[in-house]
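step 4 of 6: structure.
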Amino acid sequence: MILKRLRLFLGILTLLILTFLFLDFAGLLPAEHIPLADIQLVPALLSLSLGTVAALFLLTLLFGRIYCSVLCPMGLFQDLTARFAKLFKKRLKYTYSPEKRWLRYGSLAAVVGSYVAGWSVLLSLLEPYSAFGRMVTHLLRPLYMAGNNLIAAVFNHFGNYTFYHTEVFMLAGSSLVVSLLTFLLIGYFAARYGRTFCNTLCPVGTVLGMVSRFSMFKFRVNEETCNQCGVCARNCKASCIDSKHETVDDSRCVACFNCTTVCTKKAIRYEFSWKNSKSMPIEEESVSERRRFLTTVGVTLLAAGTQVWASGMHLATNKPWKRKSPLSPPGAHSTEHLNAHCTACHLCVAQCPSKILKPSFLEYGIEGMMQPVMDFSHGFCNYDCTLCTEVCPTEALTKLTVDQKHATQVGIVHFVRTNCVVYTDETFCGACSEHCPTQAVHMVPYKNGLTIPELTTAICVGCGGCEYVCPAKPSKAIYVEGNPIHRIATLFTDTHNKEVKVDSFGF
Amino acid sequence: MKRRDFLKAAAVTGLATTFKLTEGMDLMAQRAVKPSLKSGKTDLVAVMGGEPAQMFQKAMAELGGMGKYVKKGQKVCVKPNIGWDKTPELASNTNPELVAEIVRQCLKAGAAEVVVFDNSCDDWRKAYKNSGIEAAATAAGAKMMPAKEATYYREIALPKGVVLKSAKVHQAILDSDVWINVPVLKNHEGALMTISMKNHMGIVWDRGFFHRNDLQQCIADICTLNKPAILNVVDAYRVMKTNGPRGRSTSDVANPKALFVSSDIVAVDTAATKFFGQLENMPLESVKHIALAQAHHLGTMDLSKLNVKKIQL
C-alpha cells in the first residue's frame, strides 16, 4: 500500500512537471534546470549519458520496470486515461493475455534497424517520452494558450497584466496529425486494455522488459495462500498475471502495485527473488493480436501518407526563392547530427521563447520527419538566447554558451535586391539591418539619400531577424539559407569609437 | 429568416458605428498643450551634464512642473523605447532611471495610474526585463503592459495621413488621458534617426506597413494621431552613434549626458538631431520625416522661433 502510494505520488509529480514543461510558453519553470527529460531512457542513450543509462538499467534490474510507472510520461498518460475511462465504465476489468513476443521484438528490431540505417523517424514515432511530448505540444498546448488568453482578457479588462495574450498558431500540420493519431490510438488501447502499448510497440518497454525478467524484486504468487480468485489479474493493467497458473510475466509487469493492493489474501507479494526463480511459459500469438498489429501498421501508413500528401501541398506554393537547405537549430552542429540524435519530443519547440522552432515536415527528408527546424514566420532567433540547447535531452542540440552561440552560423543571409522596397519603391526601409545583431546586414548609400542593404556574410549568425522583419511581399527580399553543417561565424569588429567631446547643444 | 438576418446585420452595423464614434470623440476630447510661439513661456528645454533623473527634474522645473501636464486622477501612459533585449549601457532602450523619474513625477502630480509599454522588436519579455525598465518603472509605481499581441490594439483613423490613413494603436495610448513619449536618441540605418517621431512605431501593431509604404512619410503620418504626446522627453544620456537602432556593443555608444523636453515634437527632434550632428555627421534635411511632420503642421524646425531654455549642469 505504501509502495503504491509512493508510486502514485512520484508518478503524478513526473506527469505534472513534464506536462507543464511542454505547456509553459511563458517560461515560468526554469526548464534548463529540470532534468526530467534528461533521465528518459532514449534521450539518455542518444546523448550518451552513460551514467543515466546505467542507473536506469540498474533500477530495473533491482526493482523491475519502476521506470514505466514512475518516470515514463507516456505510461502515466495511459494510467490517467484508464482512470478516466473507469469513470464512465465502472466495471472495467483487465484480463490476462499472453505475451505478443514477435510484436514486441519485431517492433524493437524495426526501430533499432531503421535507426542504424539512418532513419530515426520510427524511433521518434514510438519512443514514449517524445510521443508524449508531441501530444502535449500539439494537442494540449494550444488549448492551454487559448485558456491563458481567455484569463488574460478578463484580467486585462480590469487593468491587471499578470496574464498576457499570446499568439496561438498551428506549428505543423503533419506533427499535429501524428500527435492526434498517437493520442487516439494509445488512448484507446489504454482505456480498454491498459498498458497495451508498453508491452507491444514501445521499444523502451521491451528493452526494460528484457532486464526486468531478471530483476531482484518481483511480484510473486504464493501458491498456498492464493485461492485463484483472479482479482489481481482483473486489476493488472499490463495483463501479465495469469491467476490460473499463479504466475506473473516479469518482463511485462510495470510494477504498479495494483495487484498487491487488491489481493485480500496477501497471496501476491513484491519480494526478493534471486533465490528461486520461475519463468513464464511462452504462448502463441492469437489472431486478434495480429489484427491489432495490422491496425497499427495501417494507421502508421495513413500518417505517413498524410505527410506525403501535405508535402505536395507545400510544394504547390510558389515562391521566387526557395531555401535549399533547412535551418537546423543552434547546437545541432549539422543536419546529420540532428537527424541521428533527435527523437522529436518537441521540448525545444515548446520552450523556444521566440516561437521559431517548428517540427519539420520533409525538410530533412522522411528520415528526419518532425525534427525541429528554424522558421522565421513568427519571430527570429534571439541573439543571446541558448534555451533550446539547454533543454534538449538527447544532445541533438548540445549545450552552447552565449559566446559559443555568437560564433555559430546556422545559416547565411541572402539578399534579393529586386524584391527590396528601397529598390522597387525607392523609399527608406532598413528593417533588416535594424534587426541584425552583428550588422552582417548593414545599410550603404544608394541614391537620393536612400540607403540599401549590403551583406558581410562572414559575421552572419543566421538568426533570421532580417528575414522575419522584411516587409517585402509576397516574397521577402532577404532570407537565410541553411548551413547543412554549421559554420563558425566570425565575430564582428567594433566600430572605431572616435571620442567626441560635446560641450554645447549644437543649436 | 431573412428579417432576422437583416436585424442582426443592422444591430452589428449599429454597434460598430457607435464604437467608432465613441473612439473618435474620445480622441477629440484629449488635445495636447500646443506650444505657443514666443509667448514668454518655455517651449523646449535642453539639459546637459547631469544624471537622467536629475536632468528631468531640472527640465520640468523649467516647464512649470509636471502638474501643468498631468492632472489629478488622470490615466497616464509613458511610452519609452524598449525595443531590444539589451542592457542600459548599450543605449538601445530608454534609460530606466529616466523612465522611473517620469513615473514618479506623474504619480506625484496625482495621476490615477501610470502604464508603461512598448511594442518591442526582440522578445518583449526579455526586452522589458533586460532594459531595466520593467523593474525601475514598477518600483516607481507604474504598471507594465504587454504589447506583443494584436488584441492590445485598436484601429483608429488618421484623416490627415498622406500614406498611412489608419493604424492599429495600442490601447494604453487610446485609453489614457495623456501620454508621454520617451524615446532614446539613436542613429537608425533605415530612417537615419530615431527620436520622438520614430518612437511612435512602438505604439502601432503593423510596422511592416510603414516599411513597405514609404517609411519616412508613414512616420510623419502616425504623428498626426489626434492625441499627440503631452510631452516628448528625449533621452540623450547615452547616445547610440552607429549601428543603430539595435547596436552591437558599447563602442557604438557615446555618453554626452543630455536631455531634451518639449511638447513640440518637430522642434524636439530637430534639436536632438542637431545635437547628434556633433557626434556623427547627420544633416537635418536627410532625416526626412522631420520636415514631413513640419509640413503636417505638427511643429516647427525653426528653433529660433521658440523659447528654448538651455541648462548646463
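step 5 of 6: annotate
 - The radius of gyration of chain B is 19 Å.
 - Chain B is about 35% helix and 20% strand.
step 6 of 6: archive
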